[in-house]
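Thread title: Can someone regenerate the structure for this chain?

I was given the following input by a collaborator and told the matching structure tokens would be attached. They weren't. Posting the sequence so someone can regenerate them.
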Amino acid sequence: MRPTTQTRFTIARLLFGADPKLHRMLQYWAATAVLYGFFLFLFYNQRIAAASQAVDALALYTGGGIAAFYLLVRASGVLGLKPTTLAVAQGLFGIGCNMWAYSIAGPLRGTTLMGLMVVVVFCTFALRPRQTLALAFAGLSGMGLTMWWHQAHDPLHYPPAVEGVTFAIMAACSLAVTFLTGEMTKLRARLTRQREELATALDTIRKLATVDELTALANRRHMNEVLAAEERRQPAAGGAGTCIALLDIDHFKQINDRHGHAAGDAVLRSFAAALRDGLRDGDVVARWGGEEFLLLLPDTGAEQAAALLERIRLDVAALAVAGLDGLRIAFSGGLCVRAAGESFADTINRADKALYRAKSAGRDRVVAD
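Best answer:
Regenerated them for you:
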């Protein structure tokens, strides 16, 4: 019986975890495990080792290390192990395996030196350039000591001149790979930083496109989007029960002329804060233009909306704005209930006419259409 997709997903989640970072670390672990297995397969298949017992010992050591690192990576969150710590530990383990393989590989021992560069490349993903360079020097030191020991104790099979040239080539290639991977790490870090800066810039642009900079309220563009969404939520046949109010600060031009634009900006900010504090969850307020503000009051009847606006009017009258010498702030408003089948554009137009009547009637009041 074949396992279902859900079963395979559960097994994969159990083995590799649900956290994306942990999943990525275990993917690197799996790649190294496959590489170790491939090398051991070649050792056994080609019988290039001096003694099969040495290969068995290396296989046992490698298998134990792979299993131990799986457990460490899988439990890294619980144990508090950082990715850099795990990368260094796995890198040193790989260098040890490389030294062992070089010692038992016989005539083809030179091929095992490629493993040292693979260790450096793998660790690049988790280490900083200086840390990668330090690990590369550790690998060169370990391999250098191994090669020196063999040429000193078995010069017939490990000729000193050959070992010296081999080490020089290995060192040059390893340092070159380390330098190039370090540059790639820097480039990747720079690209990551640029993506973060771009994301921040896009968030700022998105905010500027939807929020009025002075009052921190929704701007007219965003309010139009909200109205369109509300129109879709309440189609033409069910539009009743939504109120629109258009408010205008009384004598705002005189405030600017007499007290300066800084005082006018302070009035706008204070007025916006009073509106924000006076509205309920689900209500939306936007700076419609200049000193005009539009309120969307969903699922609200005319009497409830009028009472809400009256509370706001009293709160605004109690505002004390610095630089106005005690001048009382007031506003006029037009209030409309959206009729069934009516577009919000028509409702706003009726609210605008009601606002005009409120101003004509002496200001500091709300007139309902």
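The two ends are 72 Å apart (CA to CA).
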